[in-house]
Amino acid sequence: MSRLLAALLVTLLAASCSTVALTGRRQLNIVPDGEMLSMSSQQYGEFMKENKPSTNAEQTARIKRVGARIQSAVEEYARQTGHANDLAGYAWEFNLVESKEVNAWCMPGGKVVFYTGIMPVCRDDDGVAVVMGHEVAHAVAKHGAERMSQSLLVEMGGAALSVALQAKPQETQQLWMSAFGAGAQYGVLMPFGRGQESEADHLGLIFMAMAGYDPHHAVEFWQRMSKASGGEKPSEFMSTHPSDEHRIQKIQEELPEAMRYYKPR
Ligand SMILES: [Zn+2]
What we know:
two-stranded antiparallel sheet, binds zinc ion
């Protein structure tokens, strides 16, 4: 990295670090929420036009059912912690698309996509709740905005999102898709960092518990995921989740806290 770029990074970091409202961690964010939301609904619309929704009515209903419960839990959690404003402008959608990829993601504004390839690993509503809680946590903790900010700095010299989009529409779109784990094949950086992953695990456990799913199912889910990913070329979802043993251990340590939020159905 050039010295100039490093200096620029330091300046921008100092100027635009904000705090993840829900966790208190400092993060870089140079993209205004409004821009994130409009880019999100546009890119989500494009994605849904280009991809085939699953024809499996039962599994599609499962995604929408679990999604609605996780949504209520997140809204409740945001109210309780005084961060209801963070969800302003959200228009939740939960869709299942036809793809062999073992993947799922959530864009800002609550635009959630599951790929049919992850359904056998999820197995049932509890497994879907693990993934849904985790992916929604990435979105509400603004991890995608953080990654998009990093990408704009590193790849586009710190350009504003709207400027980058006009100057290099395709590159910007690819950066966007990889920022949300929807296009890892184009990704330059790793999908999500370790800190973001454990933040998403932690919040995800709380969200699923509040939604009425026993968070203990997260341990079984990650054990199944660990087996499923053995040897294969990992999808974005799997490749973002290294060191399964460490993750499972950390989840186990966090279970007592999550259980305090658990409201059995
Ligand atoms: Zn993740």
